[in-house]
Amino acid sequence: MTAKTISRLLSIAAAAGLAAAPVAGQAQQAIDQGDLLGLPSDLSMLKESDPNRRVATAVVNGFVITETDINQRVALLLAANQRPVSEEEMVRVRMQVLRNLIDETLQIQAAIAQELDISRDEVDQTYARVAAQNFGQDPGKMDEYLRSVGSSPEALKRQITGELAWNRLLRRNIAPFVNVSAEEVNEMIARLEADRGTEEYRLGEIFLSATPETEAAVEANANKIVEQLRQGGSFVAYARQFSQASTAAVGGDLGWIQLPQLKNAQLEAVAREMSPGQLVGPVRIAGGFSILYLIDKRQVLMADPRDALLSLKQIQINFEPGMSQEAAQQRVAAFTAGVESMRGCGDAENVAARLGANVVTNDQIRVRSLPEALQNIILQLQVGQSTPPFGSFEEGVRVLMLCGRDDPKVAAGPNFDQIMSQLEDERIEKRAQRYLRDLRNDAFIEYN
């Protein structure tokens, strides 16, 4: 199972069908509330406190969260990142997982109190769908995998239960009371038309709040998170566990926005210079630090060239084990010269046969599905032209020849119903955050 798969397991709300849309820019609006409480700037603690030692487990309104529960949920996160973590970082991960388990328990308890019980059959069906997506029709293979990484089917099913319970609560207590008028939707459509051709960005964000007193420690923590992400850690998983923005629940995804929606000139300037797939941060902003990841960018209501459908021929040579470096380089030179001599795609098989190369044809490749390094090269080719050779002696050297390209039509943009749904989801998300805060405020929680 890949990190992407595990990240999907950590986002079961989507599988359950009710993941709420993110609210752009909220992270940057976080402010220090210390002054409102009248707290002194120089605190003298009357008792030494080490919260990392005393919150190993918790009892939430009588329900016990065990160390096994935490260990198995942590194992899911570590499997998603596929990277070792330091002892210091493990402490932070366990603390965040415990907070998530507490919220999950409160959500399940609230659903039960309102007689919105989640049946075992519902949980098993969702679990089976996730298993089918990743392991075919054999849920037993996912059971084995989860146990092999130190988690369990029960841990994932517990998370599924929490997501289903929360979604059901939102459908009953919040969604029916969210209203979006036709005038608001029409205004949004008019703004989109006015912005046609301007760039919009799909950004991921991890926001960590900080006060002047905690700034150094928070920045150090942010740098460690960035280091883990650069080593291949899952942005979605880290955002869910560490981000203090409302978008943490959806893996930090701000959705498609225009940069002024960030409401922060510094973040706007940083994001404007980013390329898809680039990670930047931590960036110091009012209230804390942001880590930005540019998922993608496009032009409003304009066709994206990366949606073009390509017909490609991949022509590849391989190298015999033990072949000398000099002989391999000569073979690459001959291959390059042979490719340059091809008279279009119709000549590819004949030349490939003379070169001892293999040809694979695919008529249904979208530009955006190719590695980013190849996308810009392919978009500059005419039919019958090929990319420069790429690859290695170990895996083979190849070129891609463009044999056809169907460009996308001009984008029509979201329709009335889609915009209505988006605005409703944003308002549900805002109210859901307030609802969860109320559950926490009313809870009896004991830490062990």
TrEMBL record:
InterPro entries: OMP_Chaperone_SurA (IPR050280), PPIase_dom_sf (IPR046357), PPIase_PpiC (IPR000297), Trigger_fact/SurA_dom_sf (IPR027304). Transmembrane segments: none annotated. Residues 198-296 form the PpiC domain. Gene3D superfamilies: 3.10.50.40, Porin chaperone SurA, peptide-binding domain. Keywords: Isomerase, Rotamase, Signal. Residues 1-20 form the signal peptide. One of its GO terms (molecular function) is peptidyl-prolyl cis-trans isomerase activity. PANTHER family: CHAPERONE SURA (PTHR47637). This is Parvulin-like PPIase. It comes from Qipengyuania mesophila.
